[in-house]
Write a structure and sequence with these properties.
Elements: H1 2-20, E1 32-43, E2 50-56, E3 59-64, E4 71-75, E5 82-87, E6 94-100, E7 103-108, E8 113-118, E9 124-129, E10 137-139, E11 144-147, E12 152-156, E13 163-168, E14 180-186, E15 189-194, E16 199-204, E17 209-215, E18 231-237, E19 242-247, E20 252-259
Parallel strand pairs: 1-17
Antiparallel strand pairs: 1-20, 2-3, 3-4, 4-5, 6-7, 7-8, 8-9, 10-11, 11-12, 12-13, 14-15, 15-16, 16-17, 18-19, 19-20
Length: about 260
């Protein structure tokens, strides 16, 4: 009897030891390096301080910034023409936007105000408040994802704008990736412009890990850079794998595909 118990204990101890010796999971792979292959260009209002960009049902919605100049616009993606526009109150600095059904949410920089708009008319229908700064905003089909210029992405309820969670964005070495600006949610990932750079990062919002970086250096020709500000504005073209990208005060919107150097 005692011999049997001893044997069982030995087996249990052996299994536990093996369990503790299980190798650790391998480190995450380095982010894929991508570049923008330009497919076409369209005019962009060089006076538009672009803060948010999103293409839905053939309409390119754009939010612009600066106090006294901030707007919400509906534009023609083929011509760049502004078809509808409304202004924010003069003391507000507009930031990112996103479409949720028949609603557009537009956030503000340091005002702590998110504006709910009717998508058809662009008219304000209500407001929600939040703490901290507002930079970028997108909707992944279930929740809103918002940036504030740090390495943090905040999840929010698409109806109430209430905070529901957060994640921190990290590179393959575990270092924070901050200055996250305008956002685009597509196919379960988030594309984020990195402020004051010609770079976009692709982020897995579940883990916060950067899975790809997109180099857009030289996208806007040098001769068009007079008066132009930074890259900011990315809109997925549904069902194509392509994007529209532009920048603050840029004269051009580019239709691009993100590719590797190998194709």
């Amino acid at each position: 009897m005692w011999a049997l118990l001893a044997a069982v204990c030995a087996v249990v101890a052996l299994v536990a030891g093996c369990s503790e010796a299980t190798p650790e999971a391998p480190p995450p792979a380095a982010p894929t390096e991508l570049r923008a292959e330009v497919l076409d260009t369209t005019p962009h209002d060089p006076n538009a301080f672009t803060q948010g960009l999103e293409l839905v049902d053939g309409v390119l919605y754009e939010g612009t910034g600066l106090e006294g100049e901030s707007t919400m616009r509906a534009t023609d993606p083929d011509t760049g023409d502004v078809e509808k526009q409304t202004e924010l109150p003069g003391d507000m600095f507009g930031e990112g936007i996103t479409v949720v059904g028949d609603t557009i949410w537009q956030i503000t920089w340091q005002d702590g105000v998110a504006i709910r708009r009717d998508r058809a008319t662009l008219r304000e229908e209500g407001r929600a408040s939040y703490r901290g700064e507002g930079w970028g905003l997108c909707h992944d089909g279930e929740k809103l994802i918002m940036s504030d210029g740090s390495d943090r992405l905040t999840f929010r309820d698409p109806d109430t704008f209430a905070e529901t969670g957060r994640t921190r964005v990290r590179d393959a070495e575990g270092q924070p990736v901050d200055q996250l600006n305008e956002l685009e949610c597509v196919d379960g990932v988030v594309y984020a412009n990195v402020w004051r750079t010609d770079r976009i990062v692709r982020v897995d919002p579940r883990s916060g890990r950067v899975t790809a970086t997109v180099d857009l250096a030289g996208l806007l020709p040098e001769e068009d850079r007079g008066g132009a500000d930074v890259l900011n504005g990315i809109a997925a073209i549904p069902g194509t794998g392509e994007f529209l990208v532009t920048g603050k005060l840029w004269p051009t919107t580019f239709r691009v595909r993100f590719v590797t150097d190998h194709g």
